[in-house]
Amino acid sequence: IGKYTGGGMMQTPNAIPDDGLFDLTVIKKMRKGEIIRSLKRLYDGTILDHPKVESYTGKNITIDSEPEIHLEVDGESLGHSPIEFDIVPKTVQIIAGCKI
């Protein structure tokens, strides 16, 4: 939903937090050297320019694969595929700038 993940990485550099859409970045299998050379891209916002990276946007996203894959969101394990995510509008209210 947002651009940044742990440590300031921009895995979804085009994400707009309040547009009601998920932003998903898929990084395909890479060799160790390619991973090391590509790490900078996670921090400078150019990760989507890599040929082994795909980006998707939508109100719901289903991830299914063969073989099943481990899923992690914002550093938290969600189990394995298949898994479906849906946007639930107006479910989180944030109040800022008021005294309690």
Automatic annotation (TrEMBL):
The lineage of its organism: unclassified sequences, metagenomes, ecological metagenomes. Gene3D superfamilies: 2.60.200.40. InterPro entries: Lipid_Phosphate_FormReg, NAD/diacylglycerol_kinase_sf, YegS/DAGK_C. One of its GO terms (cellular component) is plasma membrane. This is YegS/DAGK C-terminal domain-containing protein. Residues 2-95 form the YegS/DAGK C-terminal domain.
